[in-house]
Amino acid sequence: VLVQDGVAVWDSLAIAETLADAFPQAGIWPRALAQRAQARGLCADIHSGFTALRQHCPMNVGARLPAVGARVWQEQADLREDVHHLLERCASLLQNSSGPMLFGAFGMADAYLAPVWLRLQTYALPCAMPASVHDYVQRVLALPALQEWCADAAAENDFVPFLEPYRSGPTLPV
Question: Is residue 25, in this structure, part of any structural domain at all?
Fold first, then answer.
């Protein structure tokens, strides 16, 4: 939740737009209209789509679940479709990028993708990632702010057992 001028802003896209309006010099969205539209469209897709990735690979930066990843990758065609679609889209955007991130400098689209890349890392999904996308993902994962966020998440001790059965003990199937 972002509180801006006494108003609570709840949705991540609404927060992104509020921040872009409040801090136009921050470069949250690309300056060029066409790129800005592409970045917003990508964020909207990530925000409301990729349901198979969300369903089969829940977010958990502290876990390493390659066996689960291998199983769901093999069993879930919708997951493979989600990931392949996103990798192709990112490869296309990177071909036209003027910098190390999707639209040149780091922006909201890169921030929106960070949880996706963390999911691919957590589950070690055996996807064929284009070299340009692999290099981009490594740049995102190496960002100091993301590293700090992951360290803070790994230090958390609270968990919800039905969402994280692998933390409840070895008797549960993985």
Answer: no
Could you identify the residue written with the tokens 């969402």?
Answer: 163
Rounded to two decimals, what is the model's pTM? 0.88
Q: Specify if 136 maps to a domain.
A: yes
Q: What DSSP state is assigned to residue 97?
A: -
What integer pLDDT is reported at residue 169 of this predicted model? Answer: 52
Structurally, how many domains does the chain consist of?
A: 1
User: Over the range 27-48, which residues count as b (16 or more CB within 10 Å of their CB) and which as e?
Assistant: ebbbeeeebbebbbebbeebee
Rg for the chain, CA atoms, rounded: 17
Residue 150 half-sphere exposure toward CB, CA atoms < 13 A: 20
Residue 107: domain span: 30-155
Using one digit for the tens of pLDDT, what is the confidence trace for 54-112?
Answer: 999 999 888 899 999 999 999 999 999 999 999 999 999 999 999 999 999 999 999 99
H helix intervals, the chain? 12-22, 33-48, 51-56, 66-75, 77-95, 108-123, 131-141, 144-155
Looking up tokens 């409840």 gives: 168
Whether 17 maps to a domain, the answer reads no
CATH of the domain at 64: 1.20.1050.10
